[in-house]
Predict the structure.
Amino acid sequence: MPSYDSLINAFITLFVTIDPIGNAPLFLGLTVGLSAAARRSIAIRGSIISFGILTLFAITGMAILDAIGITMSAFRIAGGLLLFVTAFEMIYGQRQERREETTNVAVSEHIANLAVFPLAIPLIAGPGAISATILLASELSADPASNSYATTAALVGIIAILMLFTAVVLIAAEALDKYIGVTGKLVLTRLLGVLLAALSVQYIADGVMAFSMS
């Protein structure tokens, strides 16, 4: 099994990139006018679809990279840069605006498939979450003391817990939005953005170091 610190790092990284609390108000906008039962159905379906997407990359991510000739060092740098952009947008409030634009377009064009787009892709299992999943799968499997199957199972378990939490948050989005308030969401988003920025810089540094040693 991976170390406790590695599992905590994986959980925090995925929690920040998936950002279930930040998605709650967007989910409300997506499902305005729908019944509570319809909202619950969309939240559960979107979370299940996202779990399938992230699990696929947790299991096959490295195989996909190897098949197209991309080294883990290169992907670690690219993934770190992508996560840093996400963190930058979170800190300066641009991520929510971009997500709202994506949501508005999706509602008008794909009203019958809200659980798939834009809820599952790109709001929950977006590029940042996919990149983080592949990076974490590589890092956890690199530990010589860990069994590959146990490592993959641990990562899939973390994804499952986060998707369950995401579904609960989305179902309770209306009450949560009133409880946290605008100020609370702004503070939480920026704190998570700073944390994600530090993690992304660490990914980039690890990738550059691996390149220099190869």
Q: What stands out?
A: DSSP finds nine helices and no strands in the chain. Residues 107-112 have pLDDT under 50 and may be disordered.
